[in-house]
Design brief:
2 copies of one chain form a homodimer. Chain A is an alpha/beta fold and 341 residues long. Chain A contains 14 helices and 9 strands. The first copy, chain A, has a domain at 41-277: Rossmann fold. The relative contact order of chain A is 0.12. At the A-B interface, α3, α7, α8, α12 and α13 of A face α3, α7, α8, α12 and α13 of B.
C-alpha cells in the first residue's frame, strides 16, 4: 500500500496527495516510509512562506498570487502549478480561522493546477512545523512548482516556517497597531519581501515609512544577519559571493487584485538572487540540519518511551510531584536504565 | 561551587539567583546540578502568567500588580515577595522589546522584596520555555511567593507559558484590532482571568462585550475544556469534584493604577479555586510530565550527538541535500549505529 501511494503521488493524483498529508497529520510515523521513498523527487519546488497577523488579508493575497502564477503571461511567461498550505499555529485547539480561509479559497478549487490544504495542530507546535515540512515534500514530489505556505501570527512559528521557505513574504496592514512598536523586531530577519496590504486604507503610507525606517536602521547598524547567520562585512565581498538582499516594500489591495504582479516579480527576483548568491544552498543546508535534528529527537523518544511501562512512568511523575526526585535525575535514570535504544 | 550557589539561592541572595539564571540561559546543562539540588524546595510559589499582544500595557499592569502584593492590606493582608520574569518569544534575535520593559520596571527595582529578570531567546523557542521553567524554579526556591511570568504575543508560546503558570491573565486593549476575529480562539483555553487594559480608550466596552460573547459561546456549546483536558459533563459532578471556573473580565487602567485590586482579588480567588477543585494537582502533574519529556529529549540528543563526529554529520547533511539519502533513514541509521546511548 505504501508503494502504491508513492506512485500515485508521483503521478500527481490529488486524492493520494490528500491521503498522505492526512497520514502525516495523524501520525508522522505512519507516513515515514512513503516520505522516504518520495524524498529523491523533492527539491524542485519554489517554497514561498506568507505570514502576517490576523486581519492583514494574507489569504486573499495568496489567492491572488496563485491566480497570477496559474494565468501565465507577465511576469510569469508560462503558467505554473501551485500548492497552498494554510497553517494556523496560534489556534492549537480549534480550527476557526482555518475554516474561514478554506471558504475564501473555494474560488480556486476548480483549477486542477492548484492544490489547497489546511493543516491543523494535533500536538505541539513542533509537531505542526514538522507536519508542514512533510506536507511540502508531498506537494513538491507531486510536481507542484510553487508552494505557498501561509501562517497566521508572529513569533517562533513564523521563524520555523521561514526556515522551511525559500522566500518569505511578511504581510502588514494599516490600522492594526501601525506604530513602530507593533512591528516586531524578529520580522526583519525573516522577511524577504514586505507587503502592505489593504493599501487603500488610511495609514498605509505610515506603515510603509515605518518599515522603510526599520530597514534603514537594520542595514546601517547591524552586522549582516539573515536567517540567523551572521556574516562579516568582509565575507560579503569576494569570498562567499553572498550579496545582501534588501526586502522590497510593496503596496497591494489584494481584494481588488491590485499590486499583485509586482509581488510576483519580487518573488521571482528573490529566487534568482538566492541562486546567484548561493544563498539557496546555505538555506537548504540549514533546513536539512534542523529537520534531521527534529526527526532524530522524535526517533530517540519513541524508542525510549516504548520501553517504559505506563505504571512506571506514572509513578515517576508522582514522585517528582512530591519532590522526592528531581526531573533531571529522573531523566538520566530513564536513559541509563534502558542503555540501548 | 555548585553547592555554594545552591545554599546562596536558598538563602535568597539576589546575586546568586541572578547568576544561576544566567547559567540557565547560557547552557541548561551547566545549571542542572544546582537545579536538581534546589528542586525539593520548589513548589511553594504561586505562578501567574501574564500574556497579551504588544501595546496592551502588560508590563505596566504587572508592575501595578506587584505593587499591590508588596504593599499588603486589601486584598492581600500581609505583603508578599514578588518575582517577575519577562519573556519575549516573538523576538528570537534581538532583545528590543525586553529592553523597554526593563526600563519601565526600574521603578520597582529598589525594593528588596522584588526580583525582576528579562529572559532572552538564545536558541529555539523550546529552549526558552525550558529556560523560563528553570528560572521559575530558582525564584521559587529562593522564596519568592508570587512569580509573574510576562510573555509577549500569541500562539504556542502563550500556551507553553500557560502550562507553566497556575493562573494565566490574558491582557487585551481596545483599538488593537478589537473585532472578534482578532481575539484568538486559543486564548479562551489559556485564560483564567481577562483584563481589558487602557479601559479609558474608546472601544473598551466593545472589547469586554466581545470577550463576554466568546465566553458565552464557549460555555454553551463546547465540552468543558481547560488546559487541553476535555471533561465530560458527568465528570464535573460528584466524581472529580472539578467545577468550572468562568474567567472574569476586568477593566483596568494600569497607567493610572485603576482596577488593579480587582485583578489581585481574582488571582487570589483563582488560587483558592485551584486548590479546592483539585485542579492544582492535575495541572502540576501535566506540567511535570511535559517538563520530563523535554528534559529527556535534550538528554537523549546530547548523548547521541556526542558520539557523532562533525565530519560525519556534515557529510550526512550533504548527502541528504543531494537527495542520495532521506532524513528519516539517516536518523534511523544514526540511532542504530550508536545503539547504546
Amino acid at each position: 500500500m505504501s508503494s502504491d501511494i508513492v506512485e500515485q503521488v508521483l503521478a500527481g493524483e490529488r486524492r493520494a496527495v490528500a491521503r498522505l498529508i492526512t497520514m502525516i497529520e495523524n501520525d508522522g510515523n505512519e507516513a515515514q516510509e512513503a516520505l522516504a521513498a518520495l524524498y529523491p523527487y523533492t527539491g524542485q519546488a519554489h517554497i514561498v512562506g506568507v505570514t502576517g497577523a490576523p486581519g492583514t488579508g494574507k489569504s486573499t493575497l495568496v489567492n491572488e498570487l496563485a491566480k497570477v502564477y496559474r494565468r501565465g503571461g507577465q511576469p510569469v511567461p508560462s503558467p505554473r502549478t501551485v500548492g497552498i498550505i494554510a497553517v494556523d499555529p496560534t489556534s492549537p485547539f480549534s480550527g476557526g480561522a482555518i475554516l474561514g480561509d478554506r471558504i475564501r479559497m473555494r474560488e480556486l478549487a476548480g483549477d486542477p493546477g492548484i492544490f489547497i490544504r489546511s493543516m491543523a495542530t494535533r500536538g505541539s507546535l513542533g509537531g505542526l512545523a514538522r507536519a508542514t515540512a512533510d506536507a511540502i515534500k508531498v506537494l513538491d514530489a507531486a510536481g507542484y512548482q510553487v508552494i505557498f505556505v501561509e501562517t497566521v501570527g508572529a513569533g517562533q512559528a513564523e521563524v520555523d516556517i521561514a526556515k522551511t521557505a525559500h522566500t518569505t513574504i511578511v504581510v502588514q496592514a494599516p490600522g492594526l497597531g501601525d506604530d513602530i512598536q507593533a512591528i516586531k523586531a524578529g520580522i526583519l530577519e525573516i522577511a524577504d519581501i514586505f507587503t502592505v496590504n489593504k493599501a487603500d486604507r488610511e495609514g498605509a503610507d505610515n506603515t510603509v515609512m515605518a518599515l522603510q525606517m526599520l530597514l534603514d536602521l537594520d542595514h546601517a547598524s547591524r552586522p549582516i544577519l539573515h536567517h540567523g547567520v551572521v556574516m562579516q562585512s568582509g565575507q560579503t565581498g569576494d569570498s562567499s559571493q553572498e550579496q545582501r538582499w534588501r526586502p522590497p516594500i510593496l503596496k497591494t489591495i489584494a481584494l481588488h487584485s491590485q499590486g499583485i504582479e509586482a509581488v510576483v516579480e519580487a518573488i521571482e527576483a528573490h529566487l534568482i538572487y538566492l541562486k546567484e548568491s548561493q544563498t539557496l544552498h546555505r538555506r537548504e543546508r540549514e533546513r536539512i540540519e534542523s529537520e534531521l535534528n527534529d526527526i532524530l529527537q522524535e526517533e530517540l523518544m519513541r524508542r525510549l518511551l516504548s520501553r517504559v511501562k505506563e505504571e512506571e512512568w506514572d509513578e515517576l511523575i508522582e514522585r517528582i510531584g512530591r519532590r522526592e526526585m528531581d526531573p533531571y535525575s529522573a531523566a538520566r535514570e530513564l536513559v541509563e536504565e534502558g542503555r540501548c535504544v
